[in-house]
Amino acid sequence: MNAKSVIRVRNAAMAMLLSLTVLIPIHGASAGQVYKHGDPNRSRIAITVDDCFDLGILQDMLDLFSRENVRVTFYPVGRFIKEKDRELWLRVINDGHEIGNHTYNHKKLTNLTGNRIREELKMAQKALNKALGFDYSMRTMRPPYGSFNANKTLQKIYRSGWPNVIFWSVSQGNADKAIEKIRGGSVCLFHTIKRDYNSLTRLIPQLKEMGFEMVTVSELFEFDNVLPEGGGPL
Fold first, then answer.
1. Which of 40, 43, 95, 150 is the most exposed place for a label (fewest CB within 10 A)?
2. pLDDT score at 107
């Protein structure tokens, strides 16, 4: 059985279970969604890269993604996004990647008030706009450490204007172990550390050979308001 046949069989076996866990609905007037897994019947996955504190490794990852012609979603911590690094952040956008909100100070949101959560998200958005030199409206957010409370924290996030909260279904820096866990619709978590970069250099060619397409989070979940290319001046 070839690699593409293996992935089709594996996806079919998991489809029923995963279709029940594609997203976690939170009901109410201010509710949004928590997304952790896309359509298991499609060979599309999202690679996400958090924190982005090591800009050297971030640059290496961008080179890798460009060589392999894949698009990913970055969740940088706001205080690491600097105007002096404008060329780098512009490259992220110009290469077709997506940037999401990961707060400004990377604090556990379960410990913060609604007003503080709103300020954290607002400051991160402002830092990115300043670094890019134009308004780029981030469409998704990811709670630091994946820490949230469905009955309290998520409602505070939604009321702050962020209805699309992104979790993950695969977090594994070892390429061999990651390849065993990835399915159609997987959201994969990585960081700007050497181990994860080395893992991605092995993992991406294997995933492509297996027939996977690597897309942004907004593309994976087919959000209607995906950002257009470019932007307007501040």
1. 150
2. 93
